[in-house]
Amino acid sequence: MKVLFLGSSQFSYIVLKELIDSGVNIVGCITRIDKPEGRGHKLMESKVKSYAKEIGLPCFESKKLKDEMDMVKKIDYDISLVASFGQILSSEFLDYRPSINVHPSLLPKYRGPSPIQTALLNGDKFTGVTIMKVAQKVDSGDILMQEKIDLPQDLYYNELEKLLGEKGAHLAKKVIDEMEEGKVKPQPQDDDNATFTKKFTKADGELDLRDSALNIVNRLRALSENVGCYLTIGDEKVKIYKATALNDLDLEKGKVDTNKKRFIIGTGDGALEILSLQSPSGKVISGRDYLNGHHEILGSRLL
After folding, report:
1. Is pTM, for the whole model, over 0.85?
2. How many other CB atoms are there within 10 angstroms of residue 249's CB atom?
3. What ranges do the domains of the chain cover?
4. Residue 135 has pLDDT above 90, yes or no
5. What's the CATH code, domain 202-297?
């Protein structure tokens, strides 16, 4: 079966690479147009486009796929496979050829743009991947296959994204093989049990020491590697990357412990040990190294 791949994100790249490595017949891909990024607003191509160029896979850029069906119809494919493409697909596209989607959650739970982050933020004990038939309503299509996985509580976003992308690719291959054999049995989603996710912004990365240590760690797991998380220490917004909850330590809310070897702060419930962080214009360092240069915060309150 000839597969056209649609994707634009890091998750898309992980899925595409695993599909290629697994022997799926990807005949081409469609991705977002190059967009300005960073302080210099330099045009950057998607990871999907970069990888496609690297392996010699035909790759087409799309601004609005609904206006580019002439391009689509020039591609010889049997089915499209979508993974974090970033566009709502038109009825014309969906009617032209069958289309399936790799979604990193156990639908109908966590429809929308941030299922991986939301599972981590909520401290879920398990998550999974769904392969579904693409429908006009976002993430509402019939379920073709699902796989549930345990979610270790020390796993951060990048690792989980890679794990779900690779599992999603293998699951999609199974679905494609079963479609060729006519064995797929679509199951409608239960819309009454659907939950929805939002797109996270920089404002969501602010850490609130009035919250519990566990909730703060979950926020770091979800957002520190992509959106970014920070604490205000003195006059600086310090990026926090990793931390651990110390529920057996009783420390005043917002107070920095006097232990010079471990950067520990009291929270609304339990204490938080900062493991890695970065001052503005500085490099990523350990909590202990930060304290070596900031003795003045020992015993102080950050609230």
Report:
1. yes
2. 14
3. 3-193, 202-297
4. yes
5. 3.10.25.10
